[in-house]
Write a structure and sequence with these properties.
Layout (H helix, E strand, L loop, with lengths): L37 H6 L25 E9 L3 E8 L8 E8 H4 L3 H16 L8 E6 L3 E7 L4 E2 H8 L4 H20 L12 E3 L5 E3 L27 H4 L7 H16 L9 H10 L10 H10 L15 H5 L9 H5 L22 H4 L14 H4 L7 E2 L1 H4 L16 H4 L54
Antiparallel strand pairs: 1-2, 2-3, 3-5, 4-5, 4-9, 6-7, 7-8
Helix pairs in contact: 5-7, 7-9
Length: about 475
C-alpha cells in the first residue's frame, strides 16, 4: 500500500512521445495579448481578492484536535504515552465515545525503528477496514504529540475473560478463532503480517465480537515468498523462525494462532519456561504435549499449526487461511455467518452504558485523566517526519459538504479578451487524505515474557508489554 511518507519523484524533462496537432487552437492576431502586464492585471478591478482561511482551504476536510475531545478515563499508560476514553464535544458525532491513543513525538523519534513502526501502524489503521479489526476515526498531531482516535471497544480484552474462566470450551474457542482467522486473512491479503497475536491484543466490542488491535509490530508489503527478519513479538507466541532470525513470512501468524488456541483450551501457551531463555529453548526444541481431553480435531489442528518446519505448517501455502478454514475443527462453522457477525458470542459483556469501563483495569480507570504537557517541542525539520499524519474517517465525512458551492469568480482576462463569461461553477467535495501512519506498542505487561529493546542492527521494535485496550 502506498503511504503518504513515500515521495515519488518525476523527471521534469519528460517528453510526450505521442504529440500531434489535433488539439491545436487556431487564433487570429490581436485576439490575445502576447506580452501581458501582470502588475496591471493584479491591480485591475476585475481581480477578486480572497483571504485564505480554514473555511476556504480544503473545505471538505473536518479539522480536529485535542480540544474536540473531553477526557473521561485512562484505559492504559506506558513509556510512550497514554490511552484515554474520550467523548467528542464538537461536530456531527458530538457525544460519541472513543479511545484516544496519545504518543509523545520526542520519545518516538529517538529510535528510527520506532518511527518506522509508528508510520506503519498509522498506514495500516487507515487502509484496513474489516468487521474484526479496530477502526480508526481520526488522527491529528500537535507540536509534541500524535493522537489516534479509535473506536471504543467497551468489552475489554479477551485476556480478561480467559484469565477469569481459566480455559474455554472448544465451542467458545472455535467462535473466537474463526473471527480471528478472517481478520488475519484480510491482513495477509493486504500484504500485512500481524506478528503479535495474543489475548491482550484481542478486544471485544459491546456485543462480544472480536476486534484485533495494536498494529505496532505489523510488517507491510509482504507478498507470497517474501520474508523479513525483524525480531519482535511476545515470546510465548513467537514462531521459531522469528527466534532463529532465519527469515519469516505470513506463516508466523498461523503459529501464533496455534499457540493462542492451545492457551484458550489448556490455560497456558504451549511452550513456557521460568525465563526468556528457557522459553525460547522450549519453542525451538521442546516436545509439544497436547492434553488427551481435547477432541481429535482440536489436537490435530494445534499440531498442524505448531509445526516448526514452515513448509509443513497449516496455512503456510499460497492458499493461506483457506487451509485452516477447511480444517475439520471448523466443520460446524458457517463462514458467511462469521463474516456477517451472525454467530452468537459466547460472552456478552455486562455493561451499564456505552461509556462503561468496568472491563478495564481499575489501576488505570480510577486515576484522574490528564493529558500531561509536553516537556519539549520538536524542531520544524523533526516535525516533518510526521507530515501527513492527519486523518478523518470517510464515514465521518459522508454527510459533510455534500452541497456544491457556487463561487462567482470573475476572470482576470475578461477586460483583455472581451469575454462574456460572468463566472464559474465549482463543485467542492470532501477529499479523504491519502495519509497513513502508526504508533508503537510499549505498554503494560501481563503474564507473558515480552521483548525489550535490543540495540543490535538487525533488530526492530521489541514488544515490552501492551497497553490494555486500544494499543
Amino acid at each position: 500500500m502506498a503511504g503518504v511518507f513515500d515521495i515519488e519523484l518525476h523527471d521534469g524533462d519528460t517528453v510526450n512521445q505521442d504529440e500531434s496537432d489535433d488539439d491545436v487552437i487556431e487564433t487570429r492576431e490581436g485576439e490575445y495579448d502576447t506580452t501581458p502586464n501582470v502588475n496591471a492585471i493584479l491591480e485591475s478591478e476585475n481581480v477578486e481578492r480572497v483571504q485564505l482561511s480554514e473555511q476556504n482551504v480544503n473545505p471538505g476536510q473536518e479539522k480536529t484536535g485535542p480540544q474536540d475531545f473531553e477526557l473521561c478515563k485512562i484505559l492504559g499508560e506506558g513509556g510512550y504515552g497514554k490511552v484515554f476514553q474520550v467523548r467528542k464535544v464538537t461536530g456531527k458525532d458530538r457525544g460519541s465515545i472513543f479511545a484516544m491513543k496519545v504518543l509523545r513525538k520526542a520519545s518516538i523519534i529517538r529510535n528510527q525503528k520506532d518511527t518506522a513502526h509508528t508510520k506503519a501502524e498509522r498506514n495500516i489503521l487507515e487502509a484496513v477496514k474489516h468487521p474484526f479489526i479496530v477502526n480508526l476515526k481520526y488522527a491529528f498531531q500537535t507540536g509534541g504529540k500524535l493522537y489516534l482516535i479509535l473506536e471504543y471497544l467497551c468489552g475489554g480484552e479477551l485476556f480478561t475473560y480467559l484469565d477469569r474462566e481459566g480455559i474455554f470450551l472448544e465451542d467458545t474457542a472455535c467462535f473466537y478463532l474463526s473471527e480471528i482467522i478472517l481478520a488475519l486473512q484480510h491482513l495477509h491479503n493486504q500484504g500485512i503480517i500481524y506478528r503479535d497475536l495474543k489475548p491482550e491484543n484481542i478486544l471485544l466490542d459491546g456485543e462480544g465480537h472480536v476486534k484485533l488491535t495494536d498494529f505496532g509490530l505489523c510488517k507491510e508489503h509482504i507478498q507470497e515468498g517474501t520474508v523479513t527478519h525483524t525480531f519482535c513479538g511476545t515470546i510465548e507466541y513467537m514462531a521459531p523462525e522469528i527466534l532463529t532470525r532465519s527469515g519469516h513470512g505470513k506463516a508466523v501468524d498461523w503459529w501464533s494462532l496455534g499457540a493462542l488456541m492451545y492457551d484458550m483450551l489448556t490455560g497456558m501457551p504451549p511452550f513456557t519456561g521460568d525465563d526468556r531463555r528457557k522459553t525460547i529453548e522450549k519453542i525451538l526444541r521442546g516436545k509439544l504435549t497436547i492434553p488427551q481431553y481435547l477432541t481429535p480435531d482440536a489436537r490435530d489442528l494445534i499440531r498442524k499449526l505448531l509445526k516448526r518446519q514452515v513448509a509443513q505448517r497449516l496455512g503456510s501455502g499460497p492458499s493461506d487461511a483457506e487451509q485452516i478454514i477447511n480444517h475439520n475443527f471448523f466443520k460446524h462453522i458457517n463462514w458467511q455467518d462469521v463474516i456477517s457477525r451472525k454467530l452468537e458470542p459466547p460472552f456478552k459483556p455486562s455493561l451499564k452504558s456505552a461509556d462503561d469501563t468496568s472491563q478495564f483495569d481499575e489501576q488505570f480507570t480510577a486515576t484522574a485523566p490528564v493529558d500531561s504537557p509536553v516537556e519539549s517541542t520538536l524542531s520544524e525539520s523533526a516535525n516533518m517526519i510526521f507530515q501527513g499524519f492527519t486523518y478523518v474517517a470517510p464515514s465521518v465525512l459522508d454527510e459533510m459538504y455534500t452541497q456544491p458551492r457556487v463561487v462567482n469568480a470573475r476572470s482576470p482576462r475578461r477586460g483583455l479578451l472581451g469575454s462574456s463569461h460572468s463566472g464559474s461553477l465549482h463543485n467542492f467535495s470532501p477529499r479523504t487524505p491519502d495519509s497513513h501512519l502508526r504508533p508503537s506498542s510499549h505498554f503494560q505487561q501481563h503474564r507473558h515474557h515480552a521483548m525489550g529493546h535490543n540495540s543490535m542492527e538487525d533488530t526492530e521494535m521489541m514488544d515490552v508489554g501492551q497497553l490494555p485496550g486500544h494499543v
